[in-house]
């Protein structure tokens, strides 16, 4: 009975969302700076609650850090400021779990900050150019931060 009530509550909540709400998926490539400059790629998905606020999950492959592959998983709140019908500014604040694949470089969770610009081709398809700072990459010594500049294609449903 509790499961039925919970499912009903979730369904009602989703039907009460504004017409501007939208699910989206995206992917792109870029250049990451860890302790070296690396080619990066990313996948992300999110929910845009209204034209201004959203929530986004992301996966970023940042290339190498101290000779080991490094990836980051993130969850962030996004803020979008439409400039006109096509262009918008984007801000991102959340948490990143940075994971080097070498045992000597421990995982590290840090603040994720991002800024960018978006261009919409139509209601569903757009491009994003972003700068993201993933914070400190590892709990092992050193203070290398993960940063990425990337271009991605975004598709909204």
Strand content: over 45%
Tell me which CATH architecture applies here: Beta Barrel
Percent helix range: under 10%
Count the helices. How many?
1
Q: Characterize the main sheet.
A: 8 strands, antiparallel, barrel
Tell the overall outline. Answer: elongated
- SSE string, helices as H and strands as E: HEEEEEEEE
Would you mind describing this structure in some detail?
This protein is mostly beta strands and 157 residues long. It has one domain: Porin (Beta Barrel). The chain is 9% helix and 66% strand. It is built from 1 helix and 8 strands, in the order H-E-E-E-E-E-E-E-E. An 8-stranded antiparallel barrel has the order 1-2-3-4-5-6-7-8. Strand 3 (53-65) and strand 4 (68-82) form a beta hairpin. It is elongated, with a radius of gyration of 17 Å.
Q: Can you summarize this structure?
A:
The chain has 157 residues and is mainly β. It has a single domain (21-156), classed as Porin (Beta Barrel). It has one helix at residues 2-15; strands at 22-33, 37-48, 53-65, 68-82, 87-100, 108-120, 125-136, 145-156.
Annotation keywords:
157 residues, 66% strand, Porin, mainly beta, 9% helix, eight-stranded antiparallel beta barrel, 1 helix, 8 strands, single chain
Map the helices and strands.
Layout: H1 2-15, E1 22-33, E2 37-48, E3 53-65, E4 68-82, E5 87-100, E6 108-120, E7 125-136, E8 145-156
Antiparallel strand pairs: 1-2, 1-8, 2-3, 3-4, 4-5, 5-6, 6-7, 7-8
């Amino acid at each position: 009975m509790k499961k039925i009530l919970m499912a009903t509550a979730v369904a009602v909540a989703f039907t009460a969302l504004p017409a501007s709400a939208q699910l989206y998926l995206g992917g792109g490539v870029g250049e990451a700076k860890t302790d070296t400059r690396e080619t990066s790629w990313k996948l992300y998905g999110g929910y845009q609650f209204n034209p201004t606020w959203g929530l986004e999950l992301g996966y970023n492959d940042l290339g190498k850090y101290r000779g080991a592959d490094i990836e980051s998983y993130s969850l962030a709140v996004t803020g979008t400021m439409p400039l006109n019908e096509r262009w918008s500014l984007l801000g991102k604040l959340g948490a990143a779990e940075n994971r080097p694949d070498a045992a000597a470089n421990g995982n590290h969770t840090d603040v994720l900050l991002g800024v960018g610009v978006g261009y919409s081709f139509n209601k569903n398809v757009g491009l994003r150019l972003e700068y993201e700072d993933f914070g400190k990459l590892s709990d092992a010594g050193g203070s290398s931060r993960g940063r990425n500049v990337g271009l991605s294609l975004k598709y909204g449903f």
